[in-house]
């Protein structure tokens, strides 16, 4: 629990500093944010443990995508977090805030469907509600970088523990 609190506090501090510095970015640029649709791949790591045998934190990969709903700050997102034993598939919706030129901060919610219930994925070992907080930014015309944290609420079988994972990756715009 202390680990979750530490990571959550660190993530909140980082987000706060980004938001506080966004006024400088606004003064330097007339366009804030991005409406880019993309699909990407990268790494994923679970930093929590459900307290049962086989629930240890693990390292895996991710495939994530984004499609913005036209003329709104809302996006439809999808993520697959995969590890050695199983994957968690997550449909999500997010609110996107343009904080700098071609850069968004996003807060979203969805649901995690674990393919093999009871087997460890990068976000727990059972289906759970998910909250995500992240950032994405364009690199040139064709690529995006993204990073986020995903919080799986009550995401372990036979436990009240939550799961916390962090992702980073490179996406291709379409």
C-alpha Rg, in Å? 16 Å
Which range best describes the helical content: under 10%, 10-25%, 25-40%, 40-55%, 55-70% or over 70%?
Answer: 10-25%
Give the strand order of the largest sheet, numbering strands 1, 2, ... along the chain: 1-2-3-4-5-6-7-8
Strand content: over 45%
Number of strands: 8
Write down the overall geometry: elongated
Mean pLDDT: 86
**Spans of at least 5 consecutive residues with low confidence:** 22-29
What's the order of the H and E elements? Answer: HEEEEEEEE
Query: With helices defined by DSSP (H or I, 4 residues minimum), what is the helix count?
Result: 1
Structural class: alpha+beta
Biggest beta sheet attributes: 8 strands, antiparallel, barrel
The N- and C-terminal alpha carbons lie at a distance of 40 Å
Describe the structure.
The protein is an alpha+beta fold and 174 residues long. The chain is 16% helix and 51% strand. It contains one helix and eight strands; from the N terminus they run αββββββββ. An eight-stranded antiparallel barrel has the order 1-2-3-4-5-6-7-8. A hairpin with a 2-residue loop joins strand 4 (87-100) and strand 5. The longest helix has 27 residues, at 2-28. It is elongated, with a radius of gyration of 16 Å. The termini are far apart. 37% of the residues are buried. Residues 22-29 have low confidence and may be disordered.
